[in-house]
Amino acid sequence: MKEFTISGFHILEHEKKTGTTIFEIDHFISENEELMEKDGCYVFCIRSGGGITPWYVGKTKRSFKEEIFQDHKKLKYMNALGKVERGSSGFFFVIHPSGKTNASQIDEIETFLIKSCIIKNPNLENDRKTGLDDWYIKGVTQNTGKPSDSENSFKKMIGFD
After folding, report:
1. Rounded CA separation 131/148 (Å)
2. What's the pLDDT tens digit per position in 87-140?
3. Cα gap 25→4, rounded to integer Å
4. What is the pLDDT of residue 135?
5. Strands (E), the chain
6. What gap in Å lies between CA 137 and CA 151, rounded to an integer?
7. For the chain, which end, N or C, has fewer CB atoms within 10 Å of the first or last residue's CB respectively?
8. Beta-bridge mates of residue 58
9. Contact predicate 22/74, CB 8 Å
10. What is the model's pLDDT at position 142?
11. CA pair distance 138, 145, nearest whole angstrom
12. Strand order of the sheet with strand 51-59?
């Protein structure tokens, strides 16, 4: 079983200007040089008011450096930042272990992350894999208000707490 690891929250400095957002990409890459050469999945988030909200989930076909700052992805980050008053933007990375890249496992993790993140933020900027299942477990896989004691116990038992 391959063990993917987590790295983050890595802040991506940005400045909002009328009609656009300027990202400090070169600074981000130089601050995270070793990480940028790895592959796996990533989540673009905005930290604000003590919480972190996911806005876009992606995966690499090559390295993080070659994927996360493509023009169409920067547009998604700008769209997300345009929906909040203020906050720090940044990334969490789910890093593939060393060795031969397993693209199908990366794809499975991306799907899992999108389905998990869209529950927290229905305005996720992803275009693919965003369809919710036609079922849910009340208080566990959908936020349906305050969970009952049974729902909380179940979530804790399966590690969703």
Report:
1. 27
2. 999 999 999 999 999 999 999 999 999 988 988 898 999 988 887 677 777 777
3. 25
4. 76
5. 5-12, 14-17, 20-23, 40-48, 51-59, 88-95
6. 9
7. N
8. 42
9. no
10. 66
11. 9
12. 5-12, 88-95, 40-48, 51-59
What is the Cα–Cα distance from 92 to 42, expressed in whole angstroms? 6
What's the pTM? 0.85
Q: Token pair for residue 59?
A: 């995966």
Token output for 11: 């802040």
How does pLDDT run across 96-105, given as a tens digit for each residue?
A: 999 999 999 9
What's the sign of the alpha-carbon dihedral 32, 91, 67, 108? positive
